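Table 4 source record.
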Amino acid sequence: MSNRSSRNRHDAGRVLAGLLGRYRGQAGVIVLGMSPGGVTVAYEVAAELGVPLDVFPVGTTRAVIRHVAHEEGGGKRYHQRVYREGRPTPDLAGTTVILVVGLASGTTMPDAVEALHQSRPGRLVVAMTAASEAACERLRREVDEVVCATTTEPSTRGEVHLGLRIFER
C-alpha cells in the first residue's frame, strides 16, 4: 500500500501509469482523458504506456446537451468541434479502454460509464488519481477494473487515510 501523494497532474499520471503497467505497449488499448481534469493525467498515462490517447468530454448536463442538440443540430457534433477539433470519435468496440479521471465525480461518472458501455469496449478500466473507497466500490460493479492511486477514507476521528487500491470485478 502506498500513501504517495502527487505533486501535480503530470506526476499523478506517471503514478497511474505505473499501476497500469500490464497494459504497456499492448495492441487494442486506448487511454481516454475525461475532460477537463483527467486530460493532463491521461497524457502522461498514454505516453508511459505507449498507447493512443484521446479525449472523453463529459460534465455537461443533459439539459445543456438537449439545448445544444436543438440549437446546433446535435450535441455529439458540438463536442467533436469543441473538444476534438473536428476529429471523429474513435471506434472503441472490442478495445481495452482506460478512462482516466482526475477526481471522481459522483455526478459525471455514471453518465461516462454508461456512454462508454454503449461503445462496446472489450474491457473498461477506470483509473483515478483520487476517490473515496466507497466511490471505488460502487464503480467496481459497473466496470471491469478500477485503479485508484489514492483512496481517501475518513477515520472515526475525522482523519483521512491515503492508500493505493486496485479493484477488479
